[in-house]
Amino acid sequence: MASPKGPFHLVTVNTAPERAKRLIGRVAENLKDRYTIIHVDNCESIDEVETKVKQHQPEVLFSASMWTDEEAKRIHEIARSIVPGIKLHAIPTGLQVERGPDAIVEYLCEKVPPLLED
């Protein structure tokens, strides 16, 4: 069996850092046979994105479902200006509120493999 791809260092942008850590932990666990995903940090505000992306140089950044499309776009532009090849994903606005944490984990387990394979 092939060993998992990675490690992929991931920064999240989420106003609830404990929840981000927990959910990403579940996603990493679910996908661990295929990918090594390391959640290195979380930005609680858009203002923290530049500093933390410079600090960690992650391969991947996720913006959480509390951000509007405009905010997610801004977060992604900041990240890409620092790490041009960074893989970005915006979790759809309201997904956590509408469907709960399990829906986020399920959603990311579907979206992460094509993102990391790209």
Could you walk me through the main structural features you see in this protein, from its secondary elements to its overall organization?
This protein is of the alpha/beta class. It has a single domain, classed as Response regulator (Rossmann fold). It is 50% helix and 22% strand. Strand 1, helix 1 (17-31) and strand 2 form a beta-alpha-beta unit. The model has no long low-confidence stretch (mean pLDDT 96).
Q: Specify Rg, calculated over alpha carbons.
A: 13 Å
- The percent of residues in helical segments reads 40-55%
**Domain tally:** 1
Q: Poorly predicted ranges (pLDDT <50, ≥5 residues)?
A: none
Q: How many helical stretches? A: 5
What is the number of E strands?
Answer: 4
Widest β-sheet, arrangement of strands: 2-1-3-4
Strand content: 15-25%
Structural class: alpha/beta
Shape: globular
Roughly how many Å apart are the termini? 21 Å
Global mean pLDDT: 96
CATH T-level topology: Rossmann fold
Please tell me the CATH architecture by its name: 3-Layer(aba) Sandwich
Assigned CATH superfamily? Response regulator
**For this structure, what is the CATH class?**
Alpha Beta
